[in-house]
Amino acid sequence: MCRMRRWIPVALLLAACSGEERPTPAATGDAHSHDHDAHAHAPRYGGVLVELGDHEAQVELALDGESGTLTAYLWDGHVEEAVRSDMKSLRISLITGRDPLEIDLWPVTDPLTGEKAGDTSRFEATVERLKGAIAFDGILGDVTLRGRQYRGKAFEYREDEEHE
Question: What order of strands is seen across the sheet that includes strand 57-64?
Fold first, then answer.
């Protein structure tokens, strides 16, 4: 018992000097706390991630500049699991120069995953004006995932840059 009492102050001192203090989820009232500077997710297909809600879901936008094909992949908040949606299309407003461009991305059928229109995590469209594009700004239209609707999320697409 006497030995244990000597270790308690040492343990407290080591804990106090262990580095940067971070609030615990219980202290912040957040059961799933994130330090956004230290907690980033990588896009699976080399695109740009657009966060929906408070880290509830992500939309990855990936452009094949050679063909002008823009693909949207729907992910959970950690970009670990694809999230299927019953959306008929995904509208995106793009700014690729002087004139804005409204495009609809359509559901992609994938026999390997069983995804089909009305039950898919991937939407895409081929747009002539996107051929050769490496950067544009845009706004996602309504996105419905897991019964929740997200509206009007702005994003920047920049090729060859690191994206959060």
Answer: 48-52, 57-64, 69-76, 122-126, 100-107, 90-95, 135-140, 153-158
Q: Mind listing the domains of the chain with CATH numbers?
A: 41-158 (2.60.40)
Calpha distance 79→59 (Å, rounded): 9
Looking at the DSSP bridge assignments, the partners of residue 51 are 58
Here the tokens at position 118 are 């009305």
What is the H or E stretch that residue 158 is in? strand 153-158
Q: Token pair of 128, please? A: 């002539």
Position 14 pLDDT exceeds 50: no
Rounded CA-CA distance 122/130 in Å is 18
Question: What tens digit of pLDDT does each residue of 72-81 get?
Answer: 999 999 999 9
